[in-house]
């Protein structure tokens, strides 16, 4: 089976992709981080939601908090890099580099490769035009979300599970890719299972992120095996409600750190 992975370079993507079954031909399309683009999108969102005056106040707060948020993000990256150890893709993986997953190159490369499976791991939001183009290549396009949807959509699901006293809901979802944010139909969902020793770390969101990566490695292996048999696994966790989470604020982090002391 030929697999195309859309991702950004990170310890997580290196680890998961390196652990895909080696008997399959794997190609990786890596986009740039898009940090500036994300910042602009957040600024525009605040103007749309709050109007000009309140929007400016919200943007000022966001910029004041930015150094702390960036420091916390570096902590996550360093922790996962130390735990997962992978620092590059294995030698038999073909790698392509593009500026954005939403560039025309993405669909062009997919058309040339004609993969049986397209897997999305931690890219920016993929736009409608790109999704429509990819769907002409294959309808087997799935996104990994490190949370149980639709209850935990968006970012930092493990963090918010702890804040909400719902650590038992920390887990992963593999779902069809659509134009929404983690809103595609789930095909596999599993929660993190902690050993008795690991339960001492249940309120450590960094550790839960690490466990979620290990969980998804198992999930995607099982999923690929099912596709080889012409099947699509269906493991869905029934939840009530739906919520989209955004980047935690300094106030959220203070609640978190005060709760784990």
Overview in brief:
It contains seven helices and nine strands. The relative contact order is 0.15. By secondary structure, it is of the alpha/beta class.
What CATH architecture label applies?
A: 3-Layer(aba) Sandwich
Mean pLDDT: 92
Q: What is the terminal-to-terminal distance? A: 48 Å
Described by the principal axes of the CA atoms, the overall outline is: globular
Count of domain modules:
1
> How large a portion of the residues is in β-strands, by DSSP E?
15-25%
- Please give the radius of gyration in angstroms: 19 Å
SS elements, strand count:
9
Q: How does this model look, in words?
A:
The chain has 261 residues and is of the alpha/beta class. It has one domain (2-259): 3-Layer(aba) Sandwich (Rossmann fold). The protein is built from seven helices and nine strands, in the order E-H-E-H-E-H-E-H-E-E-H-E-E-H-E-H. The chain has helices at 11-18, 35-84, 104-113, 128-135, 157-163, 205-228, 250-259; strands at residues 2-8, 25-31, 94-98, 117-121, 141-145, 153-154, 171-176, 186-191, 244-245. The strands form two sheets. The chain has a seven-stranded mixed beta sheet with strand order 3-2-1-4-5-7-8, with helices on both faces. Strands 6-9 form a two-stranded parallel sheet. Helix 4 (128-135) links the parallel strand 4 and strand 5 (141-145). The radius of gyration is 19 Å and the shape is globular. The mean pLDDT is 92.
């Amino acid at each position: 089976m030929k697999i195309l992975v859309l991702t950004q370079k990170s310890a997580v993507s290196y680890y998961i992709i390196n652990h895909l079954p080696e008997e399959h031909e794997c190609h990786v399309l890596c986009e740039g981080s898009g940090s500036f683009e994300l910042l602009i999108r957040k600024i525009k969102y605040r103007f749309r939601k709050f109007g000009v005056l309140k929007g400016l106040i919200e943007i000022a707060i966001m910029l004041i908090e930015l150094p702390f948020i960036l420091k916390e993000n570096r902590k996550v990256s360093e922790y996962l890099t130390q735990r997962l150890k992978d620092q590059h893709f294995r030698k038999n993986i073909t790698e392509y580099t593009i500026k954005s997953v939403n560039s025309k190159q993405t669909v062009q490369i997919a058309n040339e490769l004609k993969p049986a499976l397209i897997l999305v791991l931690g890219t920016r939001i993929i736009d409608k035009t790109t999704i429509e183009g990819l769907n002409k290549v294959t309808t087997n396009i799935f996104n990994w979300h490190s949370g149980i949807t639709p209850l935990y959509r968006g970012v930092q699901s493990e963090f918010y599970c702890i804040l909400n006293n719902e650590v038992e809901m920390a887990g992963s979802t593999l779902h069809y890719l659509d134009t929404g944010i983690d809103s595609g139909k789930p095909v596999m969902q599993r929660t993190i299972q902690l050993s008795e020793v690991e339960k001492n770390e249940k309120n450590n969101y960094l550790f839960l992120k690490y466990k979620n990566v290990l969980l998804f490695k198992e999930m995607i292996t099982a999923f690929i095996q099912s596709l080889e048999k012409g099947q699509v696994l269906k493991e869905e966790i029934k939840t009530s409600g739906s919520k989209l989470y955004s980047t935690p604020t300094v106030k959220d982090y203070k609640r978190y750190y005060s709760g784990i002391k």
